Amino acid sequence: MQIPEFTAQASLYRTSNHYRSGRLNSVSDNRVYTADCYSNCHNPCAKDCSDLIGASRGACLRGCVKECRDLCGPLPPPPPPQPVSCGNFMCPPNFVCCPRGCARPGSTCCGLGACPPGTSCCRDRGCCPAGTTCARRFGILACWWF
Predict the structure, then answer these.
(1) Residue 109, phi-psi category: left (phi > 0), alpha (psi -120 to 50), beta (remainder)
(2) Which residues, 6 or more positions from 5, have their beta carbon under 8 angstroms from its beta carbon?
(3) 41-74 pLDDT, tens per residue?
(4) Tens digits of residue pLDDT in 114-139
(5) What one-character DSSP code corresponds to residue 29?
């Protein structure tokens, strides 16, 4: 089936390229720019990609990223994670504050310590392994398989 005046070449997206003219082609002087440079470059470029869909849009956005990196240089690295303030003591970044100290990321505070990831706390009895539940059965509080 043929559609009059339709060719693959005619269907390609064209941009005015107005914001790209006169930009630097490289960062040979090893400049490092702020994230503002990247935002000011990328936002108008990405807007020109908004009419595209699918793989064409993805290719256009990847082109924006490349062009803006060429203009602005690499983005500055993110700030390092900060220690966690737990009131009267500090824990390493991403650790959990428990009443008696710090617990590894993903842990749950439990009684005097902490339960590792994948386990659960059974009040003052300690940690229940994965697949068990802390419950009182037959008058006994323990980790039970259900």
Answers:
(1) beta
(2) none
(3) 878 888 888 888 899 999 998 888 888 888 888 7
(4) 999 889 999 877 899 999 999 999 99
(5) T
Contacts for 50-58: CB closer than 8 Å, 24+ residues apart: 51/13, 52/13, 56/13
Q: How far is CA 23 from CA 13, 17, 41, 67, 109, in A?
A: 21, 11, 10, 9, 55
Q: Please state at what angle helix 54-72 crosses helix 35-48, rounded to 10 degrees.
A: 150
Q: What share of the chain is helix, strand, coil (3-state, %, to 5)?
A: 25, 20, 50
Q: How far apart are CA 46 and CA 67, in angstroms?
A: 11
Exposure string over 87-120, b if 16+ CB within 10 A, otherwise e:
eeeebeeebbebeeebbeeebbbbbebbbeeebb
For residue 97, give Cα distances in angstroms to 14, 34, 122, 125, 128. 55, 34, 18, 20, 20
